[in-house]
């Protein structure tokens, strides 16, 4: 179990432990499952429409191949998703260059983890050195967010989302990959590694509109964690640890309309009641937030995330500063 290199099979996850798959499908804001938020699956009938929850029975068994990475989708599927949702996935070499820019700023120097070489990169095989005023612990705890994350190629890089080719663990370039590399270079005791790896998982966030992308991103992050654990200790993490990591991921990778900060299509027309000489009259008006563009005035379901430092649930939009 937990050995897939690219296309993670939900049937295998279910066989390993149904609680893990249930957690990866859970929406902590609605207390239900994430929804499809797409019409790409409606041809399959009831349970596959835009607002339907993604349930285990709809992605396993006879539907076991319905969720798959973009690289495995047909050309027609890709074109439809581009037209419907402006979905374009970024090649790993571009993700790497942009992640390098973030690290250039953080470290105060270039080519920390690798050096770009046209549409590839050359990995720095030496142990990562830190500035005098910063530590590897600071790096692991630094917060990172991938907006419109899709399958989370900026956070983790088990494979190139365009070509579908797997990437060796030593050459991965995701933001979480870099944190876990640094951790493994500096910590050998398993108990301490687990402690700081949890901090690394808590430090990375991402959101997307489409439910299938949310599941893929969550799976990729979970399997990345397992990959690095196995690489470090030559064994798989315990089931309890995997469940703990899955729970954190379910909070940190969430489904959201990135412009309104609410669950996709959760805003509704408002009913206004007026009392006249002729009795009560009802009229409908558009959600005030959608109407005036003020992100604080939507009547949809505002998305919640966890502030792990304070162990407090907050609405994501409260973090927005203009």
Question: Which helices and strands, and how do they pair?
Answer:
Blueprint: H1 10-16, H2 18-25, E1 26-27, E2 32-33, H3 75-85, H4 92-107, E3 114-117, E4 120-123, H5 136-141, E5 144-146, H6 175-186, H7 190-202, E6 204-208, H8 211-233, H9 239-252, E7 253-255, E8 270-276, E9 279-285, H10 288-292, E10 304-307, E11 312-315
Parallel strand pairs: 5-6, 6-7
Antiparallel strand pairs: 1-2, 3-4, 8-9, 10-11
Helix pairs in contact: 1-2, 2-9, 6-7, 6-8, 8-9
Structural write-up:
There is one protein chain. This protein has 322 residues and is of the alpha/beta class. It folds into 2 domains: 1-255, no CATH class; 270-319, no CATH class. 36% of the residues lie in helices and 14% in strands. The chain is built from 10 helices and 11 strands. It has helices spanning 10-16, 18-25, 75-85, 92-107, 136-141, 175-186, 190-202, 211-233, 239-252, 288-292; strands spanning 26-27, 32-33, 114-117, 120-123, 144-146, 204-208, 253-255, 270-276, 279-285, 304-307, 312-315.
Quickly list its features.
alpha/beta; three-stranded parallel sheet; 10 helices; 14% strand
In short:
The chain is of the alpha/beta class. Helix content is 36%, strand content 14%. The protein is built from ten helices and eleven strands.
């Amino acid at each position: 179990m937990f050995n897939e290199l690219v296309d993670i099979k939900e049937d295998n996850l279910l066989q390993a432990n149904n609680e893990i798959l249930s957690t990866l499908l859970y929406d902590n804001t609605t207390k239900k499952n994430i929804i499809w938020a797409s019409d790409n699956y409606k041809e399959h009938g009831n349970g596959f429409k835009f607002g339907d929850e993604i349930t285990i029975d709809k992605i396993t068994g006879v539907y076991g191949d319905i969720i798959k990475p973009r690289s495995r989708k047909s050309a027609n599927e890709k074109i439809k998703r581009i037209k419907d949702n402006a979905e374009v996935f970024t090649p790993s070499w571009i993700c790497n260059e942009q992640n390098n820019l973030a690290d250039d700023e953080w470290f105060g120097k270039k080519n920390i983890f690798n050096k770009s070489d046209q549409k590839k990169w050359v990995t720095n095989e030496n142990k990562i050195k830190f500035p005098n005023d910063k530590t590897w612990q600071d790096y692991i705890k630094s917060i990172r967010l991938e907006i419109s994350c899709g399958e989370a190629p900026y956070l983790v890089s088990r494979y190139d989302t365009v070509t579908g080719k797997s990437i060796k663990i030593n050459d991965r370039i995701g933001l979480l990959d870099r944190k876990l590399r640094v951790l493994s270079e500096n910590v050998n005791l398993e108990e301490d590694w687990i402690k700081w790896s949890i901090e690394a998982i808590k430090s990375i966030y991402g959101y997307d509109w489409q439910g299938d992308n949310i599941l893929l991103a969550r799976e990729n992050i979970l399997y990345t964690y397992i990959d690095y654990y196995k690489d470090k200790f030559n064994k798989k993490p315990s089931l309890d640890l995997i469940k703990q990591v899955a729970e954190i991921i379910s909070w940190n990778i969430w489904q959201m309309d990135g412009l309104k900060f609410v669950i996709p299509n959760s805003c509704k027309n408002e009913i206004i009641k007026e009392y006249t000489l002729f009795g009560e009259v009802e009229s409908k008006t558009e959600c005030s937030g959608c109407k005036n563009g003020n992100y604080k005035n939507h009547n949809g379901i505002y998305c919640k995330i966890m502030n792990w430092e304070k162990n407090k649930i907050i609405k994501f939009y409260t973090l927005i500063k203009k």
